[in-house]
């Protein structure tokens, strides 16, 4: 009976210690108002770029950045409600709509790379080298091949919708698969089903070893992928950390961050994943 | 198979080398889930006890709600806690969203009904004669409840195990309210999701194995405490 009591006391003591440590961790430093909330697309985080840029900025500014990699659609929605301070996204027309609504200001280009249409090496639809991405989509439909879509209102999904509009039709009912998941998961689904998919080049490179897909259509101006930084409007949302947002945006377009962007990914993938803003392209991605 | 083997090797490498990043994530997972479980225990056991022994109007409804809560979809909890904590939400002035405290809050909401429901069930399966006898001996209400809780300690510890297991393995709500911020709110489950998304499957498998190991270790300790009550 005594041993039982000792056991229970020991268990409780363990819990109390855990709680004490937990409280310590919880109190470990949030100074309200000093944190900066960055809402961004998944590709900037998944590629590992933000793991380099954000700590660098934190060191330079003394601010803590809360990076939320939620996808461009949700990032812009967070901006429209004032839930984030600064946005790093890749959907020029949706960004323009947010600027027009007055919820965000001061869009600046940060970097770009490109999308590709990838598919099985055997290319059953015969789209390899098609100059216009929209024509390639029409051909995939005409040949009855599978197209795998993100279906998640991400920047990539938004671009895919634009390409279908450019092709003058809706996505087909048959052979059109929506995963509702991130780029890596969607690529793996496409690979497993022998389908075609629109992907950013970075994620394709990151998954090259695990997917059977190869880039088939590239170089169309509509496949340019432009990342911009937007500051959430302090006039509309007085609670936002605008000084922090401005500092972060200045940092992203500054020389130091641009140098990081230029060299990023070369070591791992043998080619850069992103190109700095100076290397061409306007915000509309043309 | 090759991938799983590589994951095992990676897990051993991360653990053996006491990889600073992984240790921090592991410790944070343990702290937050431990704290949430403890809070659920402190707040849940009295309520579970009261529900077991008191008859009042609407009790059936409350019990049904608690039992429903035991299967509350975590993603729903995540959504509602997020909305509550938004800057534009009712508790926005606390600036609590995307902090470890928000994670504990969501986990508490998930663990609480589990503790209440299982405590209630544990106490109700005690022989009612024991209660009559204690009352007959003139036990005060506090003495009565303490004695009955002691008798029900095995299933109450089982409730703790269930609650801890539910919150340590939770990912959807933790991702939504914590934001998976490196060095701040990134825990084992959300780190696993991120590494999977990045295509780093070996690291993701390693993190899963570490999570399983942690879960097992904590459950083992609790089970040990629990079973000492049986084997005399």
3D architecture notes:
- The complex is a heterodimer of chains A (286) and B (232).
- The N terminus and C terminus of chain A are likely disordered.
- In chain A, strands 1, 2, 3, 4, 5, 6, 7, 8, 9 and 10 form a 10-stranded mixed beta sheet that branches.
- The termini of chain A are far apart.
- Chain A is globular, with a radius of gyration of 23 Å.
- Chain A contains 12 helices and 10 strands.
- The longest helix of chain A has 26 residues.
- By secondary structure, chain A is of the alpha/beta class.
- By secondary structure, chain B is mostly helical.
- Chain B has a single domain, classed as Orthogonal Bundle (MetI-like fold), CATH 1.10.3720.
- Helices cover 77% and strands 0% of the residues of chain B.
- Chain B contains 11 helices and no strands.
- The radius of gyration of chain B is 20 Å and the shape is globular.
- The mean pLDDT of chain B is 88.
- At the A-B interface, α1, α2, β2 and α8 of A face α2, α5, α10 and α11 of B.
Keywords:
heterodimer; A: 286 residues; alpha/beta; D-Maltodextrin-Binding Protein, domain 2; 2 domains; 10-stranded mixed beta sheet; 12 helices; 10 strands; 45% helix; disordered N terminus; disordered C terminus; B: 232 residues; mainly alpha; MetI-like fold; 11 helices; 0% strand; globular
Quick gist of this model?
The complex is a heterodimer of chains A (286) and B (232). With 286 residues, chain A is an alpha/beta fold.
Can you summarize the main beta sheet of chain A?
Answer: 10 strands, mixed
Query: Which outline of chain B best applies?
Result: globular
CATH superfamily of chain B: MetI-like
CATH class (first level) name of the largest domain in chain A: Alpha Beta
- The name of the CATH topology of the largest domain in chain A is D-Maltodextrin-Binding Protein, domain 2
Count of helices of chain B?
11
**What number of structural domains do the residues of chain B give?**
1
How much helix, percentage-wise, in residues of chain A? 40-55%
Distance between the termini of chain B: 44 Å
């Amino acid at each position: 009976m005594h041993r039982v009591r000792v056991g229970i006391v020991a268990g409780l003591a363990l819990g109390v210690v855990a709680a004490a440590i937990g409280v310590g961790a919880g109190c470990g430093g949030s100074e309200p108002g000093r944190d900066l909330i960055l809402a961004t697309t998944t590709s900037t985080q998944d590629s590992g770029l933000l793991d380099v840029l954000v700590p660098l900025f934190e060191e330079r500014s003394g601010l803590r950045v809360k990076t939320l990699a939620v996808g461009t659609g949700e990032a812009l929605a967070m901006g429209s409600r004032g839930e984030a301070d600064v946005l790093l996204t890749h959907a020029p027309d949706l960004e323009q709509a947010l600027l027009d609504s007055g919820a965000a200001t001061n869009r600046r280009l940060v970097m770009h790379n490109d999308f590709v249409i990838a598919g099985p090496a055997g290319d059953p639809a015969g789209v390899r080298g098609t100059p216009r991405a929209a024509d390639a989509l029409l051909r995939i439909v005409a040949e009855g091949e599978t197209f795998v879509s993100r279906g998640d209102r991400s920047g990539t999904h938004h671009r895919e919708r634009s390409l279908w509009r450019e092709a003058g039709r809706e996505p087909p009912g048959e052979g059109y698969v929506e995963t509702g998941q991130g780029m890596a998961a969607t690529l793996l689904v496409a690979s497993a089903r022998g389908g075609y998919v629109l992907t950013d080049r970075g994620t394709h490179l990151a998954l090259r070893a695990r997917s059977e897909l190869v880039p088939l259509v590239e170089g169309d101006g509509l496949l340019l992928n432009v990342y911009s930084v937007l500051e959430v409007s302090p006039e509309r949302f007085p609670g936002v950390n605008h000084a922090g947002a401005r500092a972060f945006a200045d940092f992203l377009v500054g020389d130091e961050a641009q140098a990081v962007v230029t060299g990023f990914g070369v070591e791992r993938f043998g080619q850069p994943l992103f190109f700095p803003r100076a290397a061409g392209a306007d915000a509309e991605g043309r | 198979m090759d991938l799983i083997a590589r994951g095992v090797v990676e897990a051993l490498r991360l653990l053996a080398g006491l990889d600073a990043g992984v240790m921090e994530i592991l410790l944070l997972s343990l702290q937050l889930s431990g704290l949430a479980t403890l809070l659920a225990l402190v707040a849940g056991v009295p309520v579970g006890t009261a529900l077991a022994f008191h008859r009042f109007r609407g009790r059936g409804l409350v019990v049904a709600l608690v039992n429903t809560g035991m299967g509350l979809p975590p993603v729903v909890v995540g959504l509602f806690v997020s909305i509550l904590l938004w800057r534009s939400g009712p508790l926005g002035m606390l600036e609590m969203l995307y902090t470890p405290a928000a994670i504990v809050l969501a986990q508490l909401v998930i663990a609480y009904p589990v503790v209440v429901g299982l405590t209630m069930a544990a106490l109700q399966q005690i022989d009612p004669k024991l209660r009559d006898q204690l009352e007959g001996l003139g036990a005060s209400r506090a003495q009565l409840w303490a004695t009955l809780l002691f008798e029900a300690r095995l299933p109450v510890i089982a409730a703790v195990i269930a609650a801890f297991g539910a919150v340590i393995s939770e990912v959807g709500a933790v991702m939504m309210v914590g934001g998976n911020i490196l060095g701040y709110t990134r825990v084992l489950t959300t780190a696993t999701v991120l590494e999977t998304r990045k295509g780093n499957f070996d690291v993701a498998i390693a993190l899963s194995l570490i999570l399983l190991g942690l879960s097992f270790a904590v459950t083992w300790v609790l089970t040990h405490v629990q079973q000492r009550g049986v084997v005399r």
